[in-house]
Amino acid sequence: MPKFVAVHKWTRETNIACIKELIIGFTAMLKGEAPKDIILHYTWSRLDDPYGVFCCWEAPSKEALVKLFEKYLPTLLKYTEFVPVLQMYPPTVEYELSLLQAIRDMSSK
């Protein structure tokens, strides 16, 4: 399933609203109300900015993540960029496959 890094960077003025939404969103996840095929793997706080966080999500699509945020985190969504990523280390089957495909494509030129 595709993985995404969500880059969140909200403002001081929206901090309380975003925190309230995060409480609602995490509560929905804990209660099993959020879609089961969307998984939050990790969250990292920025050391250089108290209003920034990076999160690693697994979801069927970027659109599915946007829909989740529209429902539970609409303010935070305005300050979020979802970046599709591929895990390189430790290697995954998807990463190994992408390397083999790149080698095949280079060899066929």
Q: What's the quick description here?
A:
The chain has helices at residues 15-30, 62-72, 74-77, 93-107; strands at 3-9, 39-45, 52-58, 80-85.
Strand order of the largest sheet: 2-3-1-4
Mean residue pLDDT: 95
Gross CATH architecture: 2-Layer Sandwich
- The amount of helix comes to 40-55%
CATH class: Alpha Beta
User: Order of helices and strands, N to C?
Assistant: EHEEHHEH
Distance between the termini: 30 Å
**Do you know the CATH topology?**
Alpha-Beta Plaits
How many separate domains make up the residues? 1
Described by strand count, sense and barrel closure, the largest sheet is: 4 strands, antiparallel
Q: Unreliable stretches, pLDDT < 50, 5 or more residues?
A: none
Tally of helical segments: 4
What is the strand tally? 4
Principal-axes geometry comes out as elongated
Class based on secondary structure composition and strand pairing: alpha+beta
Our Rg estimate from Cα atoms comes to 17 Å
Strand content: 15-25%
Description:
By secondary structure, the protein is α+β, with helices and mostly antiparallel strands. The protein is built from four helices and four strands, in the order βαββααβα. The radius of gyration is 17 Å and the shape is elongated.
Provide tags for this entry.
single chain, 109 residues, alpha+beta, Alpha-Beta Plaits, 4-stranded antiparallel β-sheet, 4 helices, 4 strands, 25% strand
